[in-house]
Amino acid sequence: MKYLAILGSHKRDGITGQYLDTVLDALPASAEKEIVFLRDYDIYPDTMHDKCPALDAIEAKMAACDVWIIAAPTYWSGLSGVMKYFFDCMRFRMVRMTKKMDTLPGQFKNKHYVSLTTCFTSSVENFVTGATDQTFVTIDRVLTSAGLIKKGEFVGTGTWQYHELRPKKIQECQRLAQKIAHADRKDDETLKRYILLFGMIAVTTLVTMGIQNIFLHLFSASVFWLAYISFVLIFFLLLAGLLHFFTFVRHRRR
Predict the structure, then answer these.
(1) 102: exposed, middle or buried (C-beta count within 10 Å: 0-12, 13-18, 19+)?
(2) pLDDT at 52
(3) Per-residue pLDDT tens for 187-229?
């Protein structure tokens, strides 16, 4: 497996870069790894008469690797300007546009990526306020538009005036490295998602019918519409609760 780390921070050896190095160090010794520190490159947008040589060089590295590790700090609750500028300049190299202005995946379709960011806020504050959410949203929007498959993410919190990596976060980096070390070439989780959805619906239906049985028994009711309305309401509340947990609460960044 070949891994390309793209670092969009202002310092190569800052906290973001150190967490990135921790992920890379935890990858198998046989893995091919390379870091692109964006500030080392003279990056500017392509024009009709002038293509950027730095983008040519980075594009070739991106094409040659199986997994990208996108690392950039969070500033002002958003992606760092260094990384955002790079994404902006790479736009037409990563996607293709139709005559109807549809954005379709380009040459990097079906590669894998993970995203890594850091922020000043604490884990608790980040969990409550979602300070790093927009950073991940931007990275995901860009790379999924290009057809890449996400395999994980990491957030290093509480970096204000802190120059050492936290042991707990180091372990998270190591687990992330183990996860991407075994990433298949294509997304193989579609069936898993459908099975999970089926299981959620089956359990929710069973619980709904159990609660409804108790309700109808207590009120000695057997009217069709009462049974129907109570089933729909109970099912909706249970399913909405499950979806909210798996979509938001379980994945809140700490």
Answers:
(1) exposed
(2) 94
(3) 556 667 778 778 878 888 888 888 877 777 776 655 767 777 7
Instruction: From 139, 135, 131, select the one nearest 69 (Cα to Cα).
Output: 139
pLDDT digits (tens, 9 = 90+) for 100-140: 777 788 899 999 999 999 999 888 888 888 899 999 999 99
pLDDT reported for residue 233? 84
Note the pTM of the prediction, 2 decimals.
Answer: 0.73
Answer whether residue 80 shows pLDDT above 60. Answer: yes
In this structure, how many other beta carbons lie within 10 angstroms of the beta carbon of residue 8?
A: 24
Q: How far apart are CA 192 and CA 143, in angstroms?
A: 22
Burial level of 35, CB count in 10 A (0-12/13-18/19+)? middle
Polymer length in residues for the chain = 254
Cα–Cα distance measured from residue 85 to residue 96, given in angstroms and rounded to the nearest whole number: 19
Whole-angstrom distance, CA of residue 107 vs CA of residue 147: 9
| Alpha-carbon gap, residue 82 to 47, rounded angstroms | 20
Cβ atoms within 10 A of the Cβ of 123, count?
17
Residues with Cβ within 8 Å of 52's Cβ and at least 6 positions away in sequence, in order, are 42, 43, 44, 45, 46, 89
3-state secondary structure at position 184:
coil
CA 58, CA 10: separation in Å to the nearest integer?
18
Confidence of residue 42 (pLDDT cuts 50, 70, 90): very high
- Cβ(46)–Cβ(89) below 8 Å: yes
